[in-house]
Amino acid sequence: MELPSNLSTDEASPEWMNKGDNAWQLTAATLVGLQCVPGLVILYGGMVKKKWAINSAFMALYDFASVLICWVGWGYRMSFGDKLVVFWGKPAVALDEKYLLGQAFLGYFPTASMVFFQFVFAAITPILIAGALLGRMNFIAWMLFVPLWHTFSYTIGAFSIWCPEGWLSKLGVIDFAGGYVIHLSSGVAGFTAAYWVGPRLDKDRERSPPNNILMMLAGAGLLWMGWTGFNGGAPYTASTDASLAVLNTHVCTATSLLTWLVLDMSVFGKPSVIGAVNGMITGLVCITPGAGVVQCWAAILMGLTSGSVPWYTMTVLHKKIKFLRHVDDSFAVFHTHALAGILGGILTGFFAVPKLCRLFYLVPEWERYIGLAYGLQTGKTSAGLRQMGAQLAGIGFIVCLNIVMTSLVCLFIKLIVPLRLEEEVLQIGDYAIHGEEAYAIWDDEEKYENTQVNSAYDADEYPSVVSKTVSEFQMV
């Protein structure tokens, strides 16, 4: 019996390729890409003060382009290629058609699809770091930070946890779609970088209302819906486990958002839109390490936890700990990503279902992946404790890695350019840095007649910009 013509194999559709899996992987990758561009671009652009809208959005846009070149140039092979050491791969290009058209190391689709899918994960991570640095980081320093941090931090975490040859992968750490590699990494790295870059102006820290809440919500919506590809693409196949991962993702997120909202209303008396967005993000982050390996009722419990614990640390505990107050973490990525990622990793170690782990990993030794709750239930307590130990080891490694490497990257950049913008530039914002403003009205066009875009960092240009009174550019 012959296959239908659309399923027959040829040079462009080899026997090993599953067209459905390949189509889903490319779709999932595109959804994650949309989380970055335009999702986080407009989320950041709307959530900051007016004078930082362009700079904040552009930091995200630059990152997306920069990481892609690093990724195909050396990053992908360092993350998923041949082992250099136990925690790092050998740098090599991913540009040759013979390599890209071959079967990916996992899944039934080409390596080119895997490179693109993993790229969008690599790209979103520094954008999340940027959330801690908005409103004061030197843009040239950011241009250097992205490729350096990507090379010396992200690739190590990705290889160690996600590559089959990585030491934490062999240890059995469960990180379904990046709770460790992406969110814990970005939360710790963002907080560390914020320490080295220094704070915003005092007036910007004291009062920094969003300049466009509706635009912020549009970006948040793209982030939420894009997570369908974020977690749904992690199994590398259009499978039942992918479907469960998608459902769990949205259930946990909705629960977390509502929990945060109720707490805000109970304590502050008003339903906060920004609080709801924070609850949404913590829910998305928390479910990510276990999206396809936990029951749907467990996703609800994870949402309750992610909507309450980070709420407490952000609104109550943060004010009581001097060091947390000292570091200017613009969008509180320490709470929304680092802490939520830790909670997700621990809860995954507790709730992971052996059957679901089998569906996800499809490896002979799948029985070693067992949550502590199921270990206690089935008499395999030692196996459950082992899993919990692996989850904690992964947390410890990612935290230490990002504190050390982020500090080294920042200190190196500091030898070349200042990490923080000059005080007079901080007073003005976008116009001083980029020669552009986010919301220019019709009679502002004279400001742009003699503007040379991207010349703001020339030392000779500062006097001409700063000579204009700050009040002329005063932002809401």
From TrEMBL:
Record membrane topology:
Multi-pass membrane protein
Record-linked PROSITE patterns: AMMONIUM_TRANSP
NCBIfam families per record: amt (TIGR00836)
The record ties this protein, via InterPro entries, to:
Ammonium/urea_transptr, Ammonium_transpt, Ammonium_transpt_CS, NH4_transpt_AmtB-like_dom, RhesusRHD
Where does the chain cross the membrane?
Answer: 23-45, 52-74, 115-134, 141-162, 177-198, 210-230, 242-261, 273-291, 297-318, 330-353, 392-417
**Broad class of the protein's primary localization:** membrane
Q: Which GO terms describe its molecular function?
A: ammonium channel activity
Q: Tell me which family the UniProt entry assigns to this protein.
A: Belongs to the ammonia transporter channel (TC 1.A.11.2) family.
Record key words, sorted:
Ammonia transport, Membrane, Transmembrane, Transmembrane helix, Transport
Keyword Membrane applies: yes
Q: Which Pfam families match?
A: Ammonium_transp
- Name the chain's protein: Ammonium transporter
Q: Which GO terms describe its cellular component?
A: plasma membrane
Instruction: Kindly list the places in or outside the cell where this protein is found, as annotated in its UniProt entry.
Output: Cell membrane
> Locate the Ammonium transporter AmtB-like domain: which residues?
23-439
Statement: the UniProt record of this protein carries the keyword Oxidoreductase: no
Q: Which segments of the protein form a coiled coil according to its record? A: none
